[in-house]
Amino acid sequence: MLENTQIFLKNLSCFSVEKKIETRKNDVFLLKTSKTGEKEKFIVYKKYSQLDKMPREIEMLYLLKGKGVAVPQIYDTGKNFILMEYLEGPLFIDFFCWQENTCGPVGSSLKGPAYQAIYSLCSWFSAFYAVSREVAGRQLIMGDVNFRNFIIREKIYGINLEECRDGKIEEDIGSLCAFALTYLPSYTSWKISMAGEMFRILSSELDLDKELLKQEIQKELLAISVRRKTIHEMMKFQVFDLLEKSIYFA
Ligand SMILES: Nc1ncnc2c1ncn2[C@@H]1O[C@H](COP(=O)(O)OP(=O)(O)O)[C@@H](O)[C@H]1O
Ligand SMILES: [Mg+2]
Questions:
Q1: What is the torsional sign of CA 19, 164, 128, 169?
Q2: Same domain, yes or no, for 44 and 98?
Q3: Residues 142-185: tens digit of each pLDDT
Q4: Do residues 211 and 174 both lie within one domain?
Q5: In CA terms, which of 37, 64, 110, 177 is 20 to 30 Å from 225?
């Protein structure tokens, strides 16, 4: 096992840093092999800013991969970093913004790819919850479902399992719907239909308590608006009314 970043760099001198990836907390780099005569290979180097989160993520990645859930494979681990499979493909956030743009600024109708993505997300969560329940003997949730934590390939892959914890599935899916409503520009008609379809499909496929799910959406919307200091925006869009009265969240 590699012990620290310096030894890592020495041992992997055949790798060069291709780019630093945009992150929220940790340092993540895309590395490329530079051996002459060989097809170039990429791997991901993730250095943890909070070391206490690392064992949980490593454990989850090994367990989930072993049970066939779509997550990156770990190649090696060090004192404060992991090396893992590079999953090439757009982040779910980029796909989401692109889908909204293809529907036009005021368009609210979802196209086929948006539905495919919701069902693919649903399959990923379903597998994740089943396996985590089986191995932990209790319900674990992902804990951080921001749209940069999913990569779209032939199916959706989940990355970033540092925040996995005991919890109710409605907490994850409530946050997912709240994020769908509030990526900028927030509360567009397209986002309301997308969040509504996520609510409808995921609550039915994962057999969720819809009232609890609505409470979790409200909780996350409040947390987001406190973080961004945009409570007035929530009021303007009468978001809680939307959750109570709209056909999308029935
Ligand atoms: N295995 C991977 N394959 C491809 N890209 C990855 C991989 N792991 C992480 N990334 C990229 O790095 C970003 C940050 O990784 P993540 O584990 O979510 O850390 P953080 O929580 O600090 O943002 C992701 O949003 C994604 O763009
Ligand atoms: Mg992340």
A1: negative
A2: no
A3: 999 999 999 999 999 999 999 999 999 999 999 999 999 999 99
A4: yes
A5: 110
